[in-house]
Design goal:
Blueprint: H1 4-14, E1 21-24, H2 31-34, H3 37-40, E2 45-48, H4 49-52, H5 59-68, E3 77-80, H6 83-91, E4 95-98, H7 102-113
Parallel strand pairs: 1-2, 3-4
Length: 114
């Protein structure tokens, strides 16, 4: 079940000013199962590991996501609830936030983008 509070925050506060990517280690395309069409429209790019043949925490998947967004990894903030995926993003040159709650994420992202 998607975190609707988080998705609303992304829609209202981040999407108007930033590109939003979705990067997932999945074995199948579950986008239509996980997200409504409106929620999927929040993502400027979607990278699914089964489609690209690489997975988090391999640096190449973070680099691919950044490239697809037209950005350098140093311009990206990666968010995940798994520390080893955070570590992979940092190796690739991204800032990273370990997600523990929506409120914590809002505070951490505000510090990075101010």
């Amino acid at each position: 079940m998607p975190n609707t509070e988080l998705l609303e925050f992304i829609r209202d506060e981040l999407k108007p000013r930033y590109k939003i990517g979705f990067l997932s280690n999945v074995g199948d395309d579950l986008m239509d199962v996980l997200f409504t069409d409106e929620q999927q429209a929040l993502f400027d790019d979607v990278v699914l590991s089964f489609e690209v043949g690489i997975a988090k925490p391999q640096p190449e998947i973070y680099e691919l996501s950044a490239k697809n967004l037209g950005l350098d990894t140093t311009e990206c903030v990666f968010v995940d609830d798994v520390q080893r995926y955070i570590d992979g993003a940092e190796v690739a040159g991204m800032e990273a936030i370990l997600f523990t709650s929506t409120e914590q994420f809002k505070q951490d992202i505000a510090k990075l983008i101010q």
